[in-house]
Amino acid sequence: MEFPILLIVIIALALVFDYINGFHDAANSIATIVSTKVLTPFQAVLWAALWNFAAFFLAAYIFQDFKIGNTIAKTVNENFITLEVIFSGLIAAIAWNLLTWWFGIPSSSSHTLIGGFLGAALMHAFMMDYHDVAAAQPALGFWETCKEAFTQVTHQSVVKFNKVIPIFLFIFMAPIIGMIISIIITLIIVHLYKRSNPHKADKSFKRLQLGSSALFSLGHGLNDAQKVMGIIGAALIYYHVEMLRDPVYLNIPSADRFKFFSEHYLWVPLVSFVAIALGTMSGGWKIIKTMGTKITKVTSLEGVSAETAGAITLFITDHFGIPVSTTHTITGSIIGVGLTKRVSAVRWGITVSLLWAWVLTIPISAIVAGITYLVVTFLS
After folding, report:
1. Contacts for 305 with CB less than 8 Å, ≥ 6 apart
2. How far apart are CA 225 and CA 163, in angstroms?
3. What is the secondary structure of 156-220 as a DSSP string?
């Protein structure tokens, strides 16, 4: 089977994004374990990458489902998905990810990808409606045609809100859940170890941090690699249904096509997990500094609490198929351990800056993707 060139480019770009996601989000998995000096940065990225990849076997053979990938593929109404839409969304996501990495801002790769996908699809719908309105009412001026086309877009259910609304809610819910769980875990640990020798306790927590960081890296791989898999899945399903008119895919209900795809193209989830693991091995040292030291000073005890809380949050959201930001999750967890000391232990100036980056990620990615889609369609 020969794939169209654009489909091959999309798969390659998606894997590039996955790789960038890995080094962009390396800080999420290793910031606390590096800042507490349990592992060197090089040892930490190798450790995190190993567990990123191990998540593939957990999803494929234990859970036997890729719920988050399925959610990502279905954030947009399939009637408005084309290869050009997916390509434009990926370009926007890669551009924003590289920009935030360069400035050391721990923004969400997940929301970047989702924002790009939504923005390109909305622009695609708008352009189709614009041409329809222009053909039906040639007497209308440019702005009147745009207004009419925009009105039509708002009535077409381009975005699947039953999938997108939980994603938006968890921009705020994931860090809050991580924060609450980390506070509870920290208070429990402090109570259990209050009569222990501080030096011996610290050595114990440093050993425990190897386990907690592995758990968080497992959750990171499970969550983030599936998002790229979802984008590639949307492209391949479009290819089989709309371009090949493949009877095998056409006879499968729309809701079940992604599960069939993940079994039919098992190499897609495999290479998605490999790519994010390789990216993690490359590291993202600017972001590590922000996550590991600038938000709050973290001890090995607090590192165990933050990573365990982040891992629990990621496993819960994976169970419900809600894509969340590992960046947001671990940030909330680190803030939680800071709050157990005192409110002033958290550097709120840094935290507010991160919050702005989170809020702006989806709309900026959507706007860049929409503009990219216009350029792509103009050139083609």
Report:
1. 182, 185, 186, 189, 333, 336, 337
2. 18
3. TT-B-HHHHHHHHHHHHHHHHHHHHHHHHHHHHHHHHTTTS-HHHHHHHHHHHHHHHHHHHHHHH
Sign of the CA dihedral running 250, 164, 355, 333: negative
pLDDT in the model for residue 343:
57
CB contact at 8 A, 2 and 259: no
Q: Strand, coil or helix: what is 333?
A: helix
The DSSP letter of residue 36 is: T
Query: Can you tell me the distance from the alpha carbon of 38 to that of 43, in angstroms, rounded to the nearest whole number?
Result: 9
Q: Which amino acid is at 232?
A: I
* Overall number of domains in the chain: 1
Residue type, position 223, single letter: N
In Å, what is the CA distance from 67 to each residue of 59, 225, 321, 349? 9, 12, 5, 36
Taking alpha carbons only, the member of 341, 314, 65 closest to residue 213 is 314
Helix/strand/coil for 76? strand
CA distance 220 to 218: 5
Per-residue pLDDT tens for 132-181? 999 999 888 889 999 999 999 988 889 998 888 998 888 788 889 999 99
Q: What percent of the chain has pLDDT over 70?
A: 88
- Maximal C-alpha separation, the chain: 83
Tokens of 361: 């990620």
Give the domain extent around 83: 5-379
DSSP line for 314-378: HHHHHHTT----HHHHHHHHHHHHHHTT-GGGS-HHHHHHHHHHHHHHHHHHHHHHHHHHHHHHH
d(CA 89, CA 115): 8
CA angle 95, 179, 206 (to 5 degrees): 90
The structure tokens 């050595």 sit at 203
Q: How far, in Å, CA of 324 to CA of 166, rounded?
A: 9
Q: Which two tokens stand for residue 310?
A: 């982040």
Per residue in 46-84, pLDDT (tens digit) is 888 999 999 999 999 998 889 999 999 999 999 999 999
Burial level of 138, CB count in 10 A (0-12/13-18/19+)?
exposed
